[in-house]
């Protein structure tokens, strides 16, 4: 059984560019959640996908968008990058039950210059 | 809305000493409570969770936490720490009337010294 994987591990972009981050969920999981962790802070919920539909969204602007594919892998897209978007982006996969444990990937470190 | 406060940003402790990491939450509804650990350059790993039942919860690596509803707290404890416990610890909640989106505290860095 493979765990949650994320790609790339590191990424450097400049202001105004667009970025796509990828997440492969753990086998058997149909729910993927994305979190942003700024340096020295706790993770903040961005949004969640359940069976290819957005299932909840945190306090992030529309330039943060996502997709979930039929194999339950997921993408996080960020348009018009800002310096404050520099952070570790974590995805977590879980089963469809509300209290299923969320298993986190190692994250993608995004630096915006 | 709910919020989580971790009262200590850093906790230094000597190896084999006991430790307590404090967590308080605020919510208008009942919550489920979690502790996660993050080792350097890694994602988060679940240590333990409280869903219902006994207020004393035991987790992995010898950690335990106690839910105190009147104090709205969920402090994490370990009777004897090891160097390998050095990491960032996050307390988190899920409200019982919403989905399973975690709200995290700001984290506590546990630094175990030899």
Short description:
The complex is a heterodimer of chains A (113) and B (114). Chain A has strands spanning 5-7, 10-13, 19-24, 31-37, 44-50, 53-57, 64-68, 74-78, 87-94, 103-104, 108-112. With 113 residues, chain A is mainly beta.
Rg of chain A (CA only): 13 Å
Task: Count the DSSP helices of chain B.
Answer: 0
Task: Sketch the topology of chain A as an H/E string, one letter per element.
Answer: EEEEEEEEEEE
Number of strands of chain A: 11
β-strand amount of chain B: over 45%
The geometry of chain B reads as globular
Largest interface: A-B, 27 and 25 residues
Number of helices of chain A: 0
- In angstroms, what separates the terminal alpha carbons of chain A? 37 Å
Tell me the helix content of chain A. Answer: under 10%
Largest sheet of chain B: 6 strands, mixed
| SSE topology string of chain B | EEEEEEEEEEEE
What does this structure look like?
The complex is a heterodimer of chains A (113) and B (114). Chain A is globular, with a radius of gyration of 13 Å. Chain A has strands spanning 5-7, 10-13, 19-24, 31-37, 44-50, 53-57, 64-68, 74-78, 87-94, 103-104, 108-112. Chain A has 113 residues and is mainly β. In chain A, strand 7 and strand 8 form a beta hairpin. In chain A, strands 2, 4, 5, 6, 9, 10 and 11 form a 7-stranded mixed β-sheet that branches. A 4-stranded antiparallel β-sheet of chain A has the order 1-3-8-7, with no helix packed on it. The mean pLDDT of chain A is 94. Chain B is mainly beta and 114 residues long. In chain B, 0% of the residues lie in helices and 53% in strands. Chain B is built from no helices and 12 strands. Chain B has strands at 3-5, 10-14, 19-21, 24-26, 31-38, 44-50, 56-58, 64-68, 73-78, 87-95, 103-104, 108-113. In chain B, the strands form 3 sheets. In chain B, strands 2, 5, 6, 10, 11 and 12 form a 6-stranded mixed β-sheet that branches. In chain B, a hairpin with a 5-residue loop joins strand 5 (31-38) and strand 6 (44-50).
């Amino acid at each position: 059984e493979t765990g949650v994987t994320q790609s790339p591990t590191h990424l450097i972009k400049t202001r105004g560019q667009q970025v796509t981050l990828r997440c492969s969920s753990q086998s058997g999981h149909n729910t993927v959640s994305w979190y942003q962790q700024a340096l020295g802070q706790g993770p903040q919920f961005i949004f969640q996908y359940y069976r290819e539909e957005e299932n909840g969204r945190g306090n992030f602007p529309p330039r943060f968008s996502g997709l979930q594919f039929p194999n339950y892998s997921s993408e996080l897209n960020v348009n018009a990058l800002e310096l404050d978007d520099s952070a570790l982006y974590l995805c977590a996969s879980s089963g469809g039950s509300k209290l299923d444990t969320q298993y986190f990937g190692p994250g993608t470190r995004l630096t915006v210059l | 809305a709910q919020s989580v406060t971790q009262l200590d940003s850093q906790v230094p402790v000597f190896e084999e000493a006991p430790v307590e990491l404090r967590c308080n939450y605020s919510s208008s509804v009942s919550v489920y409570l979690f502790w996660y650990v993050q080792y350097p350059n890694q994602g988060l790993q679940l240590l333990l969770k409280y869903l219902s039942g006994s207020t004393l919860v035991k987790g992995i690596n010898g950690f335990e936490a106690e839910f105190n509803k009147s104090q709205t707290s969920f402090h994490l404890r370990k009777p004897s720490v090891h160097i390998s416990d050095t990491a960032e610890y996050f307390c988190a909640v899920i409200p019982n009337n919403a989905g399973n989106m975690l709200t995290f505290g700001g984290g506590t860095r546990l630094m175990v010294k030899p």
